[in-house]
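Lecture 7 notes: from sequence to structure.
We start with the chain below.
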Amino acid sequence: VQLQASGGGTVQTGDTLRLSCAASGRTFNYYIMGWFRQAPGKEREFVASIRWSGGRTDYADSVKGRFTISRDKFKNTIYLQMNSLKPEDTAIYYCAARVFTTGNYSYWGQGTQVTVSS
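Predicted structure tokens for the same chain:
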């Protein structure tokens, strides 16, 4: 499985940004795709996830109502639409994948930096 994240950048408070993660290497019908982030000096934290088949989503409380995760099955790509960005959203964002029957994410993409200035 290969995951390629993109779309990061530097924006101002209140701005929007959309991250993309291109997935390849197998079919993902039995996978859950997720976004995580890691801010400087902090541990990596869960942001959002989506079940590839069915589209069930889950979000961290800190991003509920502001971020939306989605997937395009034809493009094999997942997205993270980030609205109303705050300085505390500044982090490196990673996409990841796991088989839905397992608890741990086994596959990780490289990170993409998101910086939100006040």
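Points to note: The chain has a mean pLDDT of 96. The radius of gyration is 13 Å.
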